[in-house]
Amino acid sequence: MVTGASGYLGSWVVAGLLEAGVSVHAAVRDPQDAARTAHLRATEERSPGRLRLFAADLLREGSYDEAMEGCAVVIHTASPFIRSVADPHRDLIAPALEGTRNVLAGVNGTPSVRRVVLTSSIAAMCGDAADLEDYPGRIVGEESWNTSSSPEHEPYSYSKTVAERLAWQMAGTQERWQLVTIHPSFILGPALNAAPTSDSFGIVGRILAGELRAGAPDIGISAVDVREVAQAHIAAAFLPRAHGRYIVSAQDTDLLGLARCLRPRFGRGLRLPRRYAPRGLVLALAPRLGLTRRYVRRNVGYALRVDASRSRRELGIRYRPVQESMEAMAAQILARAARRHSDRMTPMDTDRPARGAR
């Protein structure tokens, strides 16, 4: 079973499993929502009879029990990746924490399950880049834990941390199923779903829109392609030797480095940043940029370094260059923007009701 199966990452996990010949129970919010599940059904057409969709809700107890029935592996990808929220507890912490609790309670009640793969994050290993000053070798490793995030400061990172700690706690109370956690860095690359909600698309979209043309904040980022993240989940699900925590990341870079990846292919048509924004300016403009000043002080001007060697060695992941991921993602974002613009410019068909008519 795959949770969050219609999402950015979950869709690629489902596609990879079907391609490998695995039968998949895909848990989504509403299987009847054609707009959100069309890409899954298109994938299923290439693997007839091996994909079933089930309705499930992260916050509803027992919601995943039917989808989980008869499954040997559960891959839990469902958790919001949204950094700007009105209510951190409602929008981030509760879905991550209670969703994990509900999924694993279902696992405890499903005798067929032998392995659980949980999508965590490097955010559960490091809250602020400044934290690396106290890490061995100033690098994030599989033994690292985030101790600086809270519901008030970096609530997304906090949500991933408490959800993973709960998962390990629940795994430790039994011996039937084994837990493996996957810790992606900043996920890039194309989406299979039509309207991805991951913050990754918002951040790359801002770069493409020229919002950072005057200068990019010097924020360290480690990045990885969504297709390798999906591959890591599948390897962790089925390789007998897979165990523990795995960092999944292709390259350490920063916002300016991501923008530079786009220059060879898109540079002439886009207003891409060429320099770092002064730290003082970023600090002054932090609220307008959607950042807290504490975040700026703890992250701007600090490099982020992670060690993903274990995922290469034990899961067999071969990472593609970040430039390839950025180009594919940018091309998709720009193509969708062009289609939206074209739709707005197309004269209305008078045989159809106006938009919004009932």
UniProtKB/TrEMBL annotation:
Keyword Amino-acid biosynthesis: no
Highest taxon of the lineage: Bacteria
Domain NAD-dependent epimerase/dehydratase as annotated: residue spans: 1-236
Sorted UniProt keywords: Oxidoreductase
MF terms in GO: oxidoreductase activity, acting on the CH-OH group of donors, NAD or NADP as acceptor
UniProt xrefs under Pfam families: Epimerase
Name of the protein: NAD-dependent epimerase/dehydratase family protein
Organism of this sequence: Actinomyces bowdenii
Lineage: Bacteria, Bacillati, Actinomycetota, Actinomycetes, Actinomycetales
